[in-house]
Amino acid sequence: MTDAALDERPVSLLPDKRKVAASFSRAATSYDSVAALQRQVGKQLLALLPSDHRPSCWLDLGSGTGYFSRALDATFPQAEGMALDIAEGMLRHARPRGGARYFVAGDAERLPLRDDSLDLIFSSLALQWCEDFAAVLGEVRRVLRPGGTFAFSSLCSGTLQELRDSWQAVDGFAHVNRFRSVTVYQTFCRDSGLRLDSLNVRPEVLHFPDLRQLTHELKALGAHNLNPGRPGGLTGRARIRALVEAYEHLRQPEGLPATYQVVYGILRKVP
Predict the structure, then answer these.
(1) What is this structure's pTM?
(2) Which domains does the chain have, with CATH numbers?
């Protein structure tokens, strides 16, 4: 990859994207301590990469703390890499740890990259925060070279359903982030102009000793509720007690379950 791959067009951030960027920037120093699921999912996505693919330049899209930028660098040591994230705090945290040649602040819906400049785009558990997934796919198609691969994991509807159901027993506010359905992912991927090699959903279930630990991890990840329409102000103690009581009805021998519905997709740009 050369400096010519970079496009100097300014990136416009919408207000909701600023909130996402700010939330993850604040979580940069705490993220890795609670990112066991993120690492597990990313490793599974790495394993899905085509065995015959040998990129000369790759992009870690939504690179966060750079854990998978370093993994990609180790997997493809002869390639040049770029880490791109909307959260500048994450990039500042990742840069000293290496793994990529370039660290770029940018928006997945409007990539600051030139056409036909990448062989591989890898994105693990980042694109669920993008409102316009069709725009993401359009940008992927634009910047990939013919024969290039787009590998992504994301979250779909049903994620944290236990927490959502427990809140529904308490009030009607949107306390849990909403994600698009797998059917929507399928439709957008099919209509993207890229060849869809695979698209699968795998549930990942974590268990927590109590509700406090779950909410602590969501906050440390920067992934607490970012929905429009969420309740403002402090959550009353009575409602928290009611939430704890509702969630306790779901307790399993391993603890309180928290299910993540993870979408894995592999697409190729046909020559």
Answers:
(1) 0.86
(2) 3-159+178-205+262-268 (3.40.50.150)
